[in-house]
């Protein structure tokens, strides 16, 4: 990857020399890349420095057992960006959750891997569960992270960045690996779809708003367990990448004309910056109650309640159904 000059890095991404966040948006993917989807996609090799900003958000069930719930991205030494719906209906206190950075395998540990607890959870004050409006959240870590070759921060596009002109967009996550009982981070190149097309009657038919970004379709996209993870696109004049989205929901996984929907980081840029600087909130911020009745049902979205992942339950019941059908064939 091409490194930015110091002036551009300081202006766009970070504080003084040596601080975590100085070199944001670097090396989001490996040198070899296929266009296969995250669902059964391309492995990210350990130690490659690829996707150095990504994190695994885990519910610690019965220590030392932890369950991957969602993805997230480091945006400063003490703050992680993720999706609000990852914490709906959680059963464990937020301080018992863990953030794992610097790993491409869910079982990876040792040099280059950092583990942090969550000091506080801040969910967007206008988040609406089920509809998934304003599906964005910030996690303050219990202590700062030391950036390295395997841990970097993401670059968030401010109002001046022309997101529509960005090219070469990618996603990453562990979602499909969880369903298949594997644990290697997956990566894929995706096509960003305009909100106008994404919102058309043959696509997502009115569910898309200004705070959304659509990407991936027909064999390329995110799945359960990828929520909260990054959608990044390359700056057209340099080698770094902007994180333009936080994976929120989707209708199935990578279906034709059913792209994954992310929360736009540019839309929430001011909220993110203001919240990190000034927000004096309690240690845990519960999701606000939604009292109105939705006018229409929401498409299914990837989510994984804690402590038992929903995908594991679905896998169990599908297997049970297959066994019953087999036994029925034997009897009759």
From TrEMBL:
Pfam families in the cross-refs: Trypsin (PF00089)
Broad EC category: hydrolase
EC numbers for this chain: 3.4.21.10
SMART domains per the UniProt record, alphabetical: Tryp_SPc
Assigned keywords, A-Z: Disulfide bond, Hydrolase, Protease, Serine protease, Signal
Domain Peptidase S1: 38-277
Segment forming the signal sequence: 1-18
Catalytic activity line of the entry: Preferential cleavage: Arg-|-Xaa, Lys-|-Xaa
GO biological process: acrosome reaction; proteolysis
Molecular-function GO term, any one: serine-type endopeptidase activity
Coiled-coil stretches noted in the UniProt entry, renumbered to this chain: none
Protein name: Acrosin
Species of the source: Cyanoderma ruficeps (rufous-capped babbler)
